[in-house]
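The instructor's notes for this session suggest beginning with a concrete chain rather than abstract definitions. Hand out the sequence below and ask the class to guess, before any prediction is shown, which regions might be ordered.
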Amino acid sequence: MTKEDKKESRQEVQKVEPAHIMSPFHEMERMFDRYFSRGWPRPFHMEWPSLPKASAPFEGKTPSVDVIERDNEIMVKAELPGVDKKDLDISVTSNTVTIKGSTSHEEKEEKGDYYRCEISRGSYSRTLSLPADVDEDKTKAKFKDGILELTLPKLKKSKRHTVKVD
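After discussion, reveal the predicted structure:
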């Protein structure tokens, strides 16, 4: 054995802990969430220590909306947690629906010399293009337990066609 072989055999191999590898999709989603988390983009904004978020349902999130097309009507379902019926504004045109909602919550706590007051507000506005023209005058809306359900009758009945796959 030469001197160099002896030197190599004395060197210890260090174990490396495996790094947590995030998929590119998760990493990109995390970057967008961080970038747009406070409304208008503020890329150099430093995060403050997290405070309890009692009711900020729209903060950094977009409520889910489903659009279901049937033969005679279009059904729109939207999840609007924490929104009261009086804070909803819905407008319909022949081919769009705009849903606006807002929340406001104030929480106060007093114990001796301790006083805490937290106010949170959130708002949401979304315009959806409809897959067919609807009769806006005959639109019906139901709102129960934070779920908005709109029934929009179509002006023309859809004709379904079967397509053969080659």
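Then share the key points. The beta strands are 65-69, 73-79, 88-92, 96-111, 114-129, 140-144, 147-153. Residues 45-56 have pLDDT under 50 and may be disordered.
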